[in-house]
Amino acid sequence: xxxxxxxxxxxxxxxxxxxxxxxxxxxxxxxxxxxxxxxxxxxxxxxxxxxxxxxxxxxxxxxxxxxxxxxxxxxxxxxxxxxxxxxxxxxxxxxxxxxxxxx
Length: 103
Fold this sequence. Notes:
Elements: E1 8-15, E2 18-26, E3 48-53, H1 55-58, H2 62-69, E4 76-81, H3 84-95, E5 100-102
Parallel strand pairs: 2-4, 3-4
Antiparallel strand pairs: 1-2, 1-5
């Protein structure tokens, strides 16, 4: 298991004919684990949206969730999970979607 502060998944989602690069960051407990600024360097150039996701929001179907968050169609996402349960839910939803894939 990764040490606290280093746990993330990186993937892509196809939405509306565009590819969005996504990082799911484990907030550990109550968003205590801040995403490091260097995390943005793992994404391609362009705007980045960082969104805090709680367990209820993590149950939203993946493509719908990403479409709600991507106010800028060229933006990439860092999803900051509230806690480990939300992190696992996001990853499970991501892996269960036909329009998403992990890198």
